[in-house]
Amino acid sequence: MTTTTPANGGNGPGKTAGTATRRPPGVFRLPERGALLGTAAAALATAASTALPWTWSSDFPGDLTYYGSPAGLQLITFAGGVLTLLFALSGLGVRGLGRLTPAGRTSPVLFASLATLAATWFTLGAIAVQLGGLVNLEAGGYIAGAAALATFLGALGLPADRPVPAGWETAPAPGAWQRFTDALASVPPREPARPLPSWGEILVIAAAFGAGLYVFTYGIDAEDGAPFVGYLIFVALATPALLRAGLVRRLTEITARHRGVALAAAFVAAACFPFTQDTDQYTIIGANILIFATVALGLNVVVGLAGLLDLGYVAFLGVGAYAAALVSGSPESALGLHFPFWAALLTGAAASLAFGVLIGAPTLRLRGDYLAIVTLGFGEIFRIAMLNLNGTTGPDVTNGAMGIPNIPNLEIFGFNFGEPHQILGFTIATYGNYYLLMILVTAVVVLVFRRAAASRIGRAWIAIREDETAAVAMGVNSFRLRLLAFALGAALAGFAGTVHVHVVTTATPEQFQFAGPTPPNSAFLLAAVILGGMGTLSGPLVGAALLFLIPAKLDFLQDYQLFLFGLALVLLMRFRPEGLIPDRRKQLEFHETGQLDVPDTRLPAGDQALGGGNQAKA
Amino acid sequence: MTTPTASTGTADTVLEAAGVTMRFGGLTAVRGVDLTVRAGEIVGLIGPNGAGKTTFFNCLTGLYIPTEGTVSYRGTRLSRKPHLVTKAGVARTFQNIRLFANMTVLENTLVGRHTRTKEGLWSALLRGPGFRKAERSSEERAMQLLEFTGLAAKRDHLARNLPYGEQRKLEIARALASDPGLLLLDEPTAGMNPQETRATRDLVLAIRDQGTAVLVIEHDMRFIFNLCDRVAVLVQGEKLVEGSSEAVQADERVVAAYLGTPFEDAPGAEEAAEVRAAEEQARAAGHGPAVQEDTPRAAAPEDAPRADRPPEDRPPGDSPPGNHTPEGDAR
Q1: pTM of the model
Q2: 3-class SS at B69?
Q3: Does the interface ipTM go beyond 0.85?
């Protein structure tokens, strides 16, 4: 596609904004080029200011007192400044940077500058509050604050991305707030992406996952309190910048073309995480995130694909955990068995599977709400049964509230998971080992999910979710397939439960509640699936990571932790009901854009030919 | 009352329903209906609203279990489980479109292949050569059907985003994907414009030519009488008449059913007498045009419920000529 504006206007659906079309002004009416240049200069100054010390005392977390080496929260301001600069330069038409903004040009700059401003001023405020007054700020801090503000003000002068609507001249002039939201609005890509050579695309995938690993590692390593909050603020505001620029859509297209490479890159990036850690302090969070994410992915088979609302799913994790605990050589185990790991894994999965079939067979004839209530009940029955199998109120199997403690560390082929090991010159300690093991388990579950979803069985599940009566009339045995989904979900949870019990070394009933302050519990699992995106592969993984990381890192809020967390969930569901990583279908469902507004990515040639044909006739 | 079917139980009988009765509590929605569909036939099922046509369909496809009577397909009695009915070879569409709205056109059609493929979960997880082969052949068959119905270019569109007429077509393509010997269409042209209706007629004829018998419910009389080899009329749950298009069109009982006076001694008789009296009164009073207008209106089957109302409810100038008779010339 080397066409210029007139031809572009001819084959597009009429929405593609050529450069000649009028655009509504920004909040300030500045000349576009001047505003862009000013924004770029201020963004450069913001990035440069991180080379100066912001405070003279090393008491603030991250130690922001060095010349020439940004540290702690300064890194975030630096990244924000560079991001804003790149987007602004792309808007100026600098050669080679055009690919950075295939869709919007103004809104990415605006979001990036807003993210930088918010993170920088938050940092400065936190320094002033924690160290007792503005006197603690050095000149570098003031420069950073002023430059970030100037960047944002410059960005406010840019005209909005979308062309002026019809009747613009006669309509009453929009207020400042209206102009602001107009400038933040997203627009579709201007033209089809120019293809990269395939090695270039693979490089892009590798770079994207590398960056993802870095961002995740930064977040997990950020100290509790101000550094993590600053990180959250920045990520929450910078992500829309990437979305508005069309980079996320572009990346999705590329990964869709190289699915195998993308999956491999994702797993390599994830497996690199323990090698970035010096201690086991955060690898345990990583391992727990993976366990949580794997269980959420299993739940996604049940909820996302087959549409069965299961409110007691954590019980399956519990069955797997208890079954594995009983046969894994704990001195307190009623059975006193010590199976090798693979056998324990199979025991856990098989026990969960059996439990799933046992619960599913009578209840899956129910529809919708009834099923949710029954599963909620079974989840609680499991927990209470485990409490009561303690020798006094029932046979002694689970040791009651004390649980089954002291489960020995795994040992596979002489590799003891409890001891630190040198791998490639890095020391990987206990939780790092379990993290790497969980990567393998997650990989298996991802594989199962993908293959099951893209098959005759997966299609039948989705058909049942969409319209059960129609699915049955098409020959789908609804009960059997629902039971299959339920059993598969249970087995996957049992799989994860086996590793879970080895990581926590104790199986207690209190780990498997319906709701509680820490994951995994049924409510959190469901939240991870819905928050991340139902029916998708990466959605629950991202949702689970966020849902585990945020409460773990917001510990310092103490009593307000759950309140703020709940508030965040409500806001997210309000503004992104389809989840963070939406199914293509869900996105259309929640943001109805008109009957024929279909992503035509796979049919451009045919549609354009059709459009051309009509024009020829006219 | 009911006309006996001409011949039953011959070798080429596809569907044979005998004495199908469906009661919901005290209400008998379908009473003792016999119907036979032979191979290569298109049979129409008509009747006023609430006559029990869709209920009868649901009895045939196992969505309802008939209170009495049997339904057999090619000589074997049909199961009472709807998915087994489809497996046996009876596929259907729905009166109000029931596509899988958030699946693509191709995926919708592939779901229709469900009973004709066997690959289970293990096969899907292991992805052996058998799985790939089955997926490929399913997709080929689905694409054939999409080409047949003219939807091939839209294979990756979500079903919800198709225009109404194409959604109807997709429902037919999805039903055909199960390789049925008998296709049941429930109002396939509801809400369509004349061109779309003609296209649907051609499509149904093409389906018959490919060897699938068709049983179709429809309100569009012109469509039914042009299309069907045989038409059965269902009134108040009972089969009133069955025969060729011409015979049914000429039958006075059908006209009476649509006029709202099915039986002389039915509770409606008094009202009908009232209507006649009022009409004569109006004619005597010289409201010529209004009465003239009423006659074709009443004859138009679509307007049958409206014709039940006594004329005094209706102001004389209510009906401008030609406004209320969309398909009124069908008779």
Answers
A1: 0.78
A2: strand
A3: no
